[in-house]
Design brief:
- This protein is α/β, with parallel strands linked by helices.
- Helices cover 23% and strands 27% of the residues.
- The protein has a 6-stranded mixed beta sheet with strand order 5-6-8-9-11-10. Strands 1-2-3 form a 3-stranded parallel beta sheet, covered by helices on one side.
- Helix 1 packs parallel to helix 3.
- The two termini are 28 Å apart.
């Protein structure tokens, strides 16, 4: 979840009310899921570290609580912004999430890194693992060698060890993977490498993010014949980035089906979303860009041509509703598309 320029937002009123409005357009679909995952793309390090947008994010607690109200149950913390406020921001974020009635993944102390996070949902034990391939330039050395915290960098050894541990305690394994290249729709060699590893290890689902554009989805067959659902990039849920390509995200849903023959992942389909905002061309932010405000997230099926033409992102390049739809249609295989996009 991007919060670029949140502290420059000219909207009046309390943060809780603002956040509630941002996600009202998707609350019904998220809230009815048995389990909902979101990538929290910003530390939540506390007001004492300064609430901030780009380039060094620090989200207010109310942003997380708003996502909880929408219905999200699992929050991923491992991404390139996780050290934006240094070790203190990382530690504060982990401690804050420990006080909430949700599952956080991707933020770990060394002492409990291999403790597999599990949720029991309707009698099915689901393990969640999380990795990132990078943190932002300038923050890579923010954790001193003696730190009690660890960044879950993707590597063959850790992934193999932790998937093995997860298999001992859970029936389903879902891996969050922050990977790939920004603004790249296709699959990179890095993504293919780790997707193949996960499939060969018997992971059930890989949820990818980082590129800020929608990515493809496929079932990969592992070396033992199992199938792994891989979503290479869920795109942006809520963002004030500048270009049309960054306004589209994917709410991916699937069924975990348990029978006497075992567990399978079925009925995977995306419900695309549009991140919408207005632009005040009379004001500039700390990047000397026009101020963006009144962010809203809409299901693509509820979005109109008139809304697209009023989007504040038009200031950085004209586009239509068809442009936004095409990002999804050209990237996601038809088998995963909703009927209205086929």
């Amino acid at each position: 979840v991007e919060i670029n320029n949140f502290n420059k937002n000219p909207m009046e009123g309390n943060i809780e009310a603002i956040v509630s409005k941002i996600y009202a357009g998707i609350k019904s679909i998220v809230n009815r899921a048995d389990l909902a995952f979101v990538n929290q793309e910003a530390p939540v390090g506390g007001k004492e570290l300064g609430i901030a947008g780009y380039p060094n994010f620090n989200a207010p607690n109310e942003m997380v609580e708003g996502l909880m109200d929408v219905g999200f149950d699992v929050f991923n913390l491992a991404n390139n912004h996780m050290l934006d406020k240094g070790e203190k921001g990382y530690a504060n974020t982990i401690e804050y999430f420990d006080t909430l009635p949700v599952l956080s993944i991707g933020g770990y102390k060394k002492s409990d890194y291999d403790n597999v996070r599990i949720l029991d949902v309707k009698g099915v034990k689901i393990a969640f693992l999380s990795y990132t391939t990078l943190v932002n330039y300038g923050h890579a050395n923010d954790l001193p060698s003696g730190s009690e915290y660890i960044i879950p960098y993707a590597n063959n050894e850790d992934i193999t060890r932790q998937v093995t541990l997860a298999k001992e305690v859970a029936e389903v394994i879902i891996v969050s993977m922050h990977w790939g290249d920004e603004n790249v729709f296709g699959v990179t060699s890095q993504q293919q490498k780790y997707a193949t590893l996960c499939a060969d290890l018997g992971v059930d689902v890989v949820l990818g993010h980082h590129s800020h554009v929608v990515g493809g989805i496929e079932y990969l067959e592992g070396k033992n014949g199992g199938k792994t659902l891989v979503a290479y990039s869920l795109g942006n849920l809520c963002s004030t980035m500048l270009y049309a390509r960054n306004m589209v995200g994917e709410l991916l849903s699937f069924d975990i089906v348990k029978t006497a023959d075992g567990i399978s992942i079925e009925n995977a389909v995306v419900d695309p979303v549009i991140s919408h905002y207005k632009t005040d061309t009379s004001k500039k932010d700390n990047q000397n860009l026009h101020v963006r405000y009144e962010s809203r997230v809409y299901l693509m099926k509820d979005y109109t041509e008139a809304m697209a033409l009023e989007h504040g992102s038009q200031n950085w390049g004209a586009f239509s509703l068809d442009t936004l739809k095409k990002f999804v249609i050209d990237t996601v295989s038809e088998e995963f598309l909703p009927e209205y996009l086929k």
